[in-house]
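To whoever picks this up:

The parser on our side crashed when reading a file containing two proteins. I've narrowed it down to the boundary between the first structure block and the second sequence. Both blocks are reproduced below exactly, byte for byte. First block:
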Amino acid sequence: MIYLDNAASTKLHPEVLAAMRPCLEGESGNPSSLHAAGRRARKAVEDARETVAVCLGADPKEVLFTSGATESNNLAISGAAAALRTRGDHVITSAIEHPCVLESCARLEKQGFRVTRLPVDRQGLVDPAAVSKAMTPSTILVSVMWVNNEVGTVQPVREIRDAAKGAVFHTDAAQAAGKVPVDARACDLLTLSAHKIHGPKGVGVLRVRKGTPLDPLLVGGGQEFERRAGTENVAGIVGCAEALRIACRDLDANARRMEALRDRLQAGLERIPGTRVNGHAERRAPHLVNVSFEAVDGEAVILSLDAEGICVSSGSACASMSLEPSPVLRAMGLPADEARGSVRFSVSPFTTDAEIDRALGAVPRVIERLRKISAVSR
């Protein structure tokens, strides 16, 4: 199998598995227990928190562990809005956020908040000037992702942060960590997910800058500084911290490796007639290329490549069951037929040149066959 869907999830790094193994096979203590086994579990969690803090340039007390980026984003959006309700009722986000951010904002609207969804340009960029223009005295929260999960466009996070002055600024960095430099000091709230960086599924991070108001979503315990109740996933937390440590340690080498693989893949795909690359030509993450194939349906391409042993996707795995054209690509101005013909290829440092070459041997054949079927059906 050739796995080119690393933006959806990644394989577990061997070093991460080794770090998690003692927690999975040996210790069983609850970190909240007072006995020796509980104290050892607590130390594992706090050591992991320290590791994450160092990687992000944060204080350990600013690091919360969650069940993943979806929970972190929900907590950031809903928790900050609830805590700041007495100061204002206006929230700003972009039209191309992950569904868990957009749906969290839609929920706020049902609670009486006002939400501004900023447009993006043809390359998927949010204009910081548009953020400044949208700001009002009642704006309490701005949420714009660091790297778009469908097209890989890298947002001008620091400029947006400056434009959002006076409001809490949140960024979803799930697709940024391990691909581009991430500094938590560029925001107030920052979201990460372990399984996007060769860590385990079901664990994530929300960094909460000291002094940032945030009401909990989960209550019933004092864990995570009383901001996220529930027994900690010790093995997952250890794996998350190790994955982030490795991602930071190997960032430059891995980024160069992924960029070379991505460019090799993109060059081959662009040789197929009727192919359009979506996203920014320069401000882009190194692991991802999104293309639209003329006169074919993206879902048909995905299923046909799957039959060839090649895993790709059409965009966010959390929206993969939808039959509607990608809202991200539609927000970027693509016509519905181009958006429906889009396919996302994403590599990792574990991807090989041989796998790219094999994929490039299969994709043109699949596109040609699907176009013939489409022509006949018309």
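<<boundary where parser fails>>
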Amino acid sequence: MNKKNFNNIYNEIKLCKDEVDYGVDELAYYLEVGIKAVNLAKSIFNKGFGDKTRLYKDTHGANIDYATESDRIIEREIKKLLADTNLEILGEEYGGESSNKGYCWVIDPIDGTLNYANELPFASISLSLAYNGNPIIGIISTPKLNDNLYFGIENIGAWKNYEKINTIQRDFKEVVIAYDGVRGDMEDIYINKIKKEFGRVRLLGTTATELALCAEGGFGAVFSPMAEFWDVAGGIAIVKGAGGVVCNIDGNEALPGSGSIIAGCRDNVHKIIDAINK
């Protein structure tokens, strides 16, 4: 980590101290620790890229969900690096304490495992710090997609490689929407309803990466009707930091257990909610 770059971020956090309910030194410390953990995990990610080892297998409709050995190694190593914070940790592969009470780290060691196993670059490492179930810090690394690092703090800001980023509102017919969900009877219905209102719909197979791209203004919004908290926690904080909003399918706040997420520019999010609920 470039200390000069991080000091600039710390100064920005201090300027926004009245916007958050947490101590700025505390936020800066957790952000710095989280970035170090994610950056150190990149070497494991890169070494195992293309890992096809199936460690478990569940059926969700027509889809198969599995972990690789790399998923588990990355989660174990990130947990070791976060141990000194003495906070609860919830991970996709090994579980952990509930993220609904107090501070809790939330880890998705590889979001987009199937892409990763097939050597497609759309996969990421996602880490979040949640407080009472609300993601307040998000960090997402895309080692095989231009080796970008995204991070954000709710109500303060979001950055890509230490440069400030923001969601962007465009004409609805020029907006690209990311859709990410387990295939089911409603998928075609949702996609067709969204297509009537927006330019295009894209499916990358990694919600965390889509949320990072949304925060920098690529995707106008991200819709996942069946999101697990570890898939989206990091991206929620980054999108909010970038000026976006995050809701569930009913337009209420997206929290653990809500099961769906629509995130992005406010107008886009509300237009998606209206479209899919017609």
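After patching the parser it read the second block fine. The mean pLDDT is 90. The CA atoms of residues 79 and 103 lie 15 Å apart.
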